[in-house]
């Protein structure tokens, strides 16, 4: 068996990600993250929080077309009655599990982009999620759309942070990757093992470009984890769901003015082929219980005024219910944008429930146009360069900083 040398270890490793955690509300300023003290995020600089709903959320039972007879005909046992939903606009209601977000809607801080999808849709979870995360429906790309933004904006590992257990592809670029933080923090090894790990991150003139990048990421992992250990020790986790804890941690970092520009969180379980109504309503309640308090906290601090949350899923569901009181993989669905920088209301056009494409709704908004809008309006990026093609914009969706 060959010895595991530093060079061999780095060769077998992927690009490592750093880690970051900070409990701003529980700590004095003297204990805040060194990066925030050195380079705090200024007012007016946008922050994007991406929430991924894995499994294919049923858009028709999220933003419900209760006044459309075709909706009731297609889903006799799954359809909501008008009195059961939370009113949004004429003929549309919000799922009853989303009472907190209905209040955000009434405040004018929630935008619903209707009918979002992409051309020639794919019903595979893996392929469709890859398309959404790379923004490449036609030409396969190994780089995430925000990973390409990372590639274009420097080498600081604090610019983007995943709060998911695994770094999602959307935050992995061709040359850069976001940091990642398990909810329990990042316990760094001590003693001889810790010394050996630190040695892997030391620069070596014989490294090729790939190994140099991995070594640099290992160094980031150690330095960031060590600097944040006191903050992690002082932070009290909330007693709630994983998504709520992810967003609570993001709120701590944002209020501390950590210079991170992008956060990623997620919630799974939306593949509702059977007993869909109760399952989805429960999951949307979990989403609501996490996002609504996060937005309330952001509204109460100057640091949160530039935060925009985007909530999406890899596809919607088919219009017609199946024989198991569920729905099968479909195409278009709503995307939510939330925050003070969002122009609340309905955007885009609700797809027809009768003019279908082999049983599927026809998308009316390309998801890449939504991405281009937030890249321009929130991250002040060259969206066409990041997305590698000229894209449209949804005018008026994102407001300029105050």
Automatic annotation (TrEMBL):
Keyword annotations: Signal
Signal recorded as keyword: yes
One Pfam match: DUF1501
Matching InterPro entries: DUF1501, TAT_signal, TAT_signal_bac_arc
Signal peptide: 1-26
Protein name: DUF1501 domain-containing protein
Organism for this UniProt entry: Actinomycetospora flava
NCBIfam families per the UniProt record, alphabetical: TAT_signal_seq (TIGR01409)
């Amino acid at each position: 068996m060959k010895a595991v040398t530093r060079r061999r270890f780095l060769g077998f490793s992927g690009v490592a990600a750093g880690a970051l955690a900070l409990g701003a509300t529980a700590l004095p300023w003297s204990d805040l993250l060194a990066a925030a003290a050195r380079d705090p995020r200024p007012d007016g600089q946008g922050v994007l929080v991406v929430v991924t709903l894995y499994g294919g959320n049923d858009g028709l039972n999220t933003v419900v077309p209760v006044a459309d007879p075709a909706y009731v005909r297609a889903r006799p046992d799954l359809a909501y009655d008008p009195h059961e939903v939370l009113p949004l606009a004429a003929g549309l209601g919000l799922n009853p599990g989303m009472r907190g977000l209905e209040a955000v809607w009434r405040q004018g801080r929630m935008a619903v982009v209707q009918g979002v999808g992409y051309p020639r849709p794919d019903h595979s979870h893996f392929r469709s999620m890859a398309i959404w995360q790379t923004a490449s429906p036609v030409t396969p790309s190994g780089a995430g759309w925000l990973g390409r933004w990372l590639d274009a904006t420097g080498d600081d590992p604090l610019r983007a942070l995943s709060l998911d257990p695994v770094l999602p592809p959307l935050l992995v670029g061709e040359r850069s990757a976001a940091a990642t933080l398990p909810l329990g923090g990042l316990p760094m090894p001590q003693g001889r093992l810790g010394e050996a790990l630190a040695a892997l991150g030391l620069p070596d003139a014989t490294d090729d470009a790939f190994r140099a990048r991995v070594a640099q990421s290992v160094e980031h992992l150690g330095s960031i984890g060590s600097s944040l250990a006191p903050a992690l020790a002082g932070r009290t986790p909330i007693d709630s769901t994983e998504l709520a804890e992810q967003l609570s941690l993001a709120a701590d970092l944002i209020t501390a003015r950590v210079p991170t520009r992008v956060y990623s969180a997620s919630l799974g379980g939306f593949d509702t082929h059977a007993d869909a109504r109760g399952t989805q309503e429960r999951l949307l309640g979990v989403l609501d219980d996490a996002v609504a308090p996060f937005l309330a906290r952001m509204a109460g601090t100057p640091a949160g005024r530039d935060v925009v949350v985007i909530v999406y899923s890899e596809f919607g569901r088919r219009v017609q219910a199946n024989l198991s009181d569920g729905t099968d993989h479909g195409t278009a669905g709503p995307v939510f944008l939330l925050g003070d920088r969002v122009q609340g209301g309905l955007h885009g056009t609700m797809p027809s429930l009768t003019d279908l494409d082999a049983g599927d709704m026809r998308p009316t908004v390309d998801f890449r146009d939504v991405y281009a809008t937030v890249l321009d309006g929130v991250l002040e990026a060259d969206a066409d360069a990041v997305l590698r093609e000229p894209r449209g914009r949804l005018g008026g969706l994102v407001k300029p900083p105050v």
